[in-house]
# Entry
Amino acid sequence: MKEQFTILVYTENKVGLLQRVVSTFSRRKINIESLNTSESGVPGIFRFTIVVESQEEWVRKTVKNIERQVEVHKAYYFRDEDLVYQEIALYKVPTKVLAANGQAEELVRRHHARVLGVEEDFTILEKTGHEIETEALYKALQPFGLLDFVRSGRVAITRPKRDWQEYVESMEWELQQQ
Amino acid sequence: MQAITTTKTATALHISGAEAIIRCLLAEGADTIFGYPGGAIMPVYDALYDFREELHHVLTRHEQGAVHMAQGYARASNRVGVCLATSGPGAANLITGIADAQIDSTPIVCITGQVARHLLGTDAFQETDVMGISMPVTKWNFQVTTAEEIPEAIAKAFYLARSGRPGPVLVDITKNAQVEKFDFAYTPCTNVRSYVAKPKIDPEAIASAAAAINEAERPLVIFGQGVTLAAAEEELKQFVEKGNLPAIGTLLGHSALPTDHTHYAGMPGMHGTYAANKLTNECDVLIAIGMRFDDRVTGNLEYYAKQAKVIHLELDPAEIDKNVVADIPVLGDCKESMACIAPLLHPRPRKPWFGKFKELDQMEEEKVRQGELHPTEGALTMGEVIDKMNQVTQGNAVIVTDVGQHQMVAWRYGDFKLDKSHITSGGLGTMGFALPAAIGAKLGAEDRQVIAVIGDGGFQMTLQELGTIMQTKVPVKILILNNEFLGMVRQWQQLFFDKRYSSTEMDNPDFVTIAKGYGIEGQRVTERDKLPEALQTFLSHPDAYLLEVAVGKENNVFPMVPTGASVSDVRLE
Ligand SMILES: Cc1ncc(C[n+]2csc(CCOP(=O)(O)OP(=O)(O)O)c2C)c(N)n1
# Structure
């Protein structure tokens, strides 16, 4: 049975590592739904947040293969219930529609979207939330002549304290050395 | 040599990147390297010229030959093999061997030249994205673009190639980095912070494993190449003796336990022994040591050892529960874990269990071995050639095989008394492996007799390496078992494709004449009564020698577990 999983990977910051991580998925023909990477809380250590849909067994084996890479510190996978996660979406709508139409303004408020910038021709709205929520605003704005729409990948944080924090603490001395 | 290098490196030298590469190799203890020159690696070749006394460079005839030689060298010596190639086509030609080394966990360091830093990404002459191409088939790879990075990159390469689960690494070095001068100093690498070479062994796992083995009525040890890579042959011997455990060895694990050892009980897998396959599905505890349950070993996983409690001694966490779920995983170096478990074992007689192996072996003897090893009429068989060869080698030779029927036959019937004696391309099944790998093996283990056993098909994939033999005078023995077919494929066509021999019959050249052209002695044997003498000449000749034996064109290898079948359904005919 296919389910959605979020995989967190902690790595060194090295050229080519992204390719190594990604190819462990493509080898098993697992499609990546979203991928986000940036520096983690520990300087020099990068964190990947990867969302996939697949069977748990495949995900488990893929995660072990990721961890096998020399420059990967740790990799874990989670179901949604173990995570707090968010996405961010940006919407570009014609300013005149927003201004002329009270309905549109009401929509923005109801969806807790923020106005990031207003230009003569267009207004940029921002909404953070789960995919269904950003999607709902997208659908609602469409009739008003949405000019552009972009959604980030997921970023996620685990609910309980996990191995990674313990690993970092045990590594602290070593990490400071380098 | 070692001492000179260390003293030289102690004080910083102002040298070129190319010279630094050579000094790094020497500092890592390399004595022989394999390679092929070209534009982007020329500075290194130029530096090699000054070090030709200290570092023996073997000029191969193709880069694929160089990498297979490095593999053969590594596997015969348990040291790191090194190969050198130029950018673009040179590097690309290494890829097959690198993939082979990756799947068979062979420690090799490949150094490739690359176009100068300012030309990267410009489609420059002989530029190819070697990093991208080699990434999926290397344990680690790294591109060096300044001379200063060289010592650290090479130190890390050697450390990663040989530590943990060994594997191939590639260091791609741009031409400017080879030419630039810098202050050189070398420090070997001893750890990489994101990498665990040896997981700590859990004492509880040791205790549960020992308890399960002690309770077992019908235990079975299945060992793989992990034993050889950990240099744990002695520990394996003590383990099986102390516990009184029958042991079967995979294609790559073979020779880690002598084939005449009291507890050696055959080989698992597609062309393994009848008893080993059948009894895998009758044992109550299966003790897997340094092996990865390859599909050629397990057959259909749905019907593989389902009745058994599985204990898995393994270094690589990704192998545990990958194909077969372990009831008792023992993560760690099997040299250590076997040494921890062995003292806790209580030997039990298990006479009926050992008796079953004898009984099934007898069936195989009658149905398969008799006809294969002692035929009295008809064409020569591959089995009898190997059997007669055993009488000359006394089981003391290193046998390097290619891929196909002859590979299975040499594995099945070769006698192996010493470790690191059976070298073959297992995981990738690379035809063309044997000849270059045998050259490398001979250079890695100069005091051993090294025999390449090759089919007529595979020989023609890398036969240009006869030129390397001619030039380096390495005394390897080449045994060609010629059935004038791509035999293994033909066997499948016969059994599973209604005997439609599509593109498997071969019109072959005169191999003995070809060898002569390279200054290598040889002969062809077609008669049974000429075989013993020919084998004597073959193996007693002081130099390289090619012996071609004409064997039955349509002989098959049995037993056989057909693809997708259970190991219980192993066929004797
Ligand atoms: C590079 C490569 N190409 C194709 C194959 C597929 N293959 C496996 S065995 C075999 C036949 C080998 O024939 P030969 O070398 O004559 O040995 P024999 O089986 O007759 O002993 C082939 C073509 C392979 N293993 N490697």
Summary: The domain at 84-151 of chain A is CATH 3.30.70.1150 (Alpha-Beta Plaits).
